Amino acid sequence: MNIYKKYIKRAIDFFLALFALILLSPLFLLTALIIKIDSPGPVFFKQRRIKAGKATFTMLKFRTMRTDAPKDTPTHLLADPTAYISRSGRILRKYSIDEIPQLLHIITGTMSIVGPRPALWNQDDLIAERDKYNANDPKPGITGWAQINGRDELPIPVKAKLDGEYTQNISFWFDCKCILGTFKAVAGAKGVVEGRK
């Protein structure tokens, strides 16, 4: 039995997410205010995503696009996503500030800090590829092995294989490696692709 995966990972997730949410609360409130000033619509964007075991949940993000943007289409598949992204949304997406509300999902136990990024409910190609590596089994994460190794730039088979590598090798040190790699990737806005390649 993997003690870390079964017990310790959840405890670390809870306390780190709670600490991060408290620490980032001024940024959380400032971001919400900027979104409301920048464009009409709600502060949060809600989207149906895949969680552990291929069940679905409603994931929260800060809204970075206009309310008339296609809701269930991955941004990298839009022909011209810049036509929908708000002014504030460009910065929020570039530095992953829009992901902060997902700390709430970590606290409630739906997500983890590190894990495969939650696929859209209709991303059948990604879900099927992940099935080959049992990568739909763990809780989805805010960041993950695939995220720090290419993010949006990765083709689906490569992304699923990296998610599989993480799934088969979950450990404290692997999670630390992913978290440290995330800081580097976010600082350089690495791997962010808007629109079809």
What does it look like?
- The chain has 197 residues and is mostly helical.
- It is built from 7 helices and 4 strands; from the N terminus they run ααββααβαβαα.
- A hairpin with a 5-residue loop joins β1 and β2.
- α2 packs antiparallel against α3.
- The longest helix has 21 residues.
- The mean pLDDT is 90.
- Structural class, please? mainly alpha
Distance between the termini: 42 Å
User: What is the number of helical segments per DSSP (H or I, 4+ residues)?
Assistant: 7
Regions with little confidence, pLDDT below 50 for 5+ residues: none
Give helix % range: 40-55%
Number of strands: 4
Proportion in β-strands: 5-15%
Strand neighbour order, sheet with most strands: 1-2
Give the biggest beta sheet: 2 strands, antiparallel
Element-level helix/strand string: HHEEHHEHEHH
Q: Compute the average pLDDT.
A: 90
Task: Determine Rg (CA atoms, Å).
Answer: 16 Å
What labels describe this entry?
197 residues, mainly alpha, two-stranded antiparallel sheet, 4 strands
Structure summary:
The chain has 197 residues and is mostly helical. 44% of the residues lie in helices and 10% in strands. The N and C termini lie far apart (42 Å).
Can you lay out the helices and strands and say which pair or pack?
Layout lengths: L2 H21 L1 H14 L5 E7 L5 E7 L24 H8 L8 H6 L3 E3 L9 H8 L9 E3 L12 H13 L3 H16 L10
Parallel strand pairs: 3-4
Antiparallel strand pairs: 1-2
Helix pairs in contact: 2-3, 5-6
